[in-house]
Each structure stands twice: as C-alpha cells, then as structure tokens.
Design goal:
two-stranded antiparallel sheet; Endonuclease III, domain 1
C-alpha cells in the first residue's frame, strides 16, 4: 500500500515498490492492447482547454463539444465570454448538462484568472511553472479540481505531465486494487500519479490515462465487465473473483463460449477515432475531463 511523507511542508504519497511495479505492468499490458503511443486528441491553448473541461462535467462528449463550438462562434474571444450578459453565455452552452450553473461558473473563472494575472486573460504562463505549482495555482480557483487542472496541463498544447483520472480510469484502478475501494476520484489523482515514474514524459502520462480510460470504456464496463477477455485479468483481484464465481455457477461453459481472454496483441485496437467521444476535431476535443 501507499504511505505519505512530508516534504517541504507538503504531504507526498509514496507507494510501495510492489504496487508501483504492478502499476507499470498494467500500463505495459494496456498500452500493448490499445496501441501506445496514443495520439493527442486535440491541440487547444490552456485557457480554451479549461473552458472545455468545465463544460464537459457530467455531459455527453458530443453535447459538450457542440456547446464549446457554439460558445466560440458567438464570442470570438474569452474576454467576450467573460464580459457578456449571463443569459447569452447560458444560451450558447445550452447543449450541456446544467447550463444555468456552468455559464456563471465559466464567467467567474475567467474573471478570477484575469484578476490574478493583473488583467491578462491567459494561462500560457503555466508553462514556466513546475507541474505541481501549476496545478496548485489552478486548483486555488473555485470550481477547478484535480481532474480539470490535470486536463489543462496535459491535454492542452502545454503538454505537461499531469495525470487526470476520470470515472473509467478510476473504476479500473479500484478493481485492479491500485487504489483502495473507498478512495473517490479526487483523492485518487495523487495516489495514481505517485505510482508513475517521475521522469515520465507528458506522452507517457497521457498514454497511461488513455489506456486505463479506454479499458474502462471497452472491457471493464461498469455493470458487466468483460473479464473473460481482459489482458490484465491475472493482475485483477476483482476480475478473478468474478470469473471464479461465474465458473462455479455456470460450470465454465458460458465462459468457454465467449472465447479466451484477450492477450495484449489480440485486444481491440484503439485507433484515433475508435471510441465514442475519445477524439474530436482540432477546434474542440470530443471529450475532456472536468472536475
């Protein structure tokens, strides 16, 4: 299990070697299955990524994408969004879930950035900060959590190695016992991030997030995970228990009919447009975490 230690007044998570080795093996297996390196799905500036992430919370990817495009079409600059009548912003982002909450939140975040940057509405300066300092700066703004701060740094053209954790990623990590079952998505960020080598590039961190997320979307489903074709079944206590129960209940016949579990070389390919909501056009990501 992981332990925490204090460094320069901050709690730092230190996973044990066995857990770190397991996390790396999971990464290698899933990368082989889903085709790492995985291309970045868009190339937005960090402020645009921030708005996109705020729109995407609890919203279908197609809907958040449409809202982002509508917002950009109606207001050519983020200053325009910041200063517009609230009703107009809410109308522009109407496709998302809870536009009446997201419109004022986005405007307030844009005002906060402007105030903290002495009138400059840009997040490009984050490129000059260490990853932890950049995340802390973002998360000090009301409405920005660890998932959004990581998305801004990793998914935007900043390409900084910060690990986002979405619900799919989180579910896979819990079932693999990489994190305890009682740990929610927010606190899971530090635990899972600590399991990755600190020298990893942004591409490697991105691959880790995407591979676990894709596995949650394509195999480790919420209600009925396809454990019989999972490339990390031998590393997954949840899957092993589930398969054992199925074998006991069904005599193994049903599992045999479904076929053998996939190996890293026979898993479904993860092309750049293979999963709904994973890829988008260059003007907006089809999906982008928020939190």
């Amino acid at each position: 299990m992981a332990r925490t230690t204090a460094r320069r007044g901050r709690e730092v998570v230190v996973p044990d070697e066995e857990l770190r080795d397991k996390a790396l093996l999971v990464h290698e297996r899933l990368c082989a299955a889903y085709g790492c390196p995985i291309p970045y799905f868009h190339d937005l500036d960090p402020l645009s990524e921030l708005v996109s992430s705020l729109l995407s919370h609890r919203t279908k990817n197609a809907d958040s994408g449409r809202a982002f495009r509508q917002l950009r079409a109606r207001f050519p600059t983020w200053e325009g969004v910041r200063d517009a009548p609230l009703a107009e912003v809410e109308e522009a982002v109407a496709p998302v879930t809870w536009p009446e909450q997201k419109a004022p939140r986005i405007q307030q975040v844009l005002r906060d950035v402007t105030e903290r940057r002495a009138g400059e509405l840009s997040l490009d300066f984050l490129a000059d900060l260490p990853v932890r300092a950049a995340r802390d700066w973002l998360e000090s703004i009301t409405g920005i959590g660890p998932k959004t701060s990581a998305a801004v740094l990793l998914f935007s053209r900043l390409r900084m190695p910060a690990l986002p954790v979405d619900s799919h990623h989180h579910r896979v990590a819990v079932r693999l016992a990489l994190i305890p079952p009682g740990v929610t998505v927010g606190p899971a960020h530090r635990l899972l991030e600590a399991q990755l080598p600190p020298e990893w590039s942004a591409q490697q961190v991105y691959d880790n997030h995407e591979a676990l997320m894709l596995h949650g979307q394509r195999c480790c489903f919420h209600l009925d995970p396809a454990c019989h074709r999972c490339p990390v079944l031998d590393l997954c206590p949840t899957g092993q228990q589930r398969v054992s129960h199925e074998l006991s209940a069904e005599g193994g016949g049903a599992l045999r009919e479904r076929g053998q579990r996939v190996t890293p070389t026979s898993a479904p390919a993860a092309g750049p447009h293979a999963s709904p909501g994973v890829r988008g056009d260059s003007s907006l990501p089809a999906r982008s975490p928020a939190g």
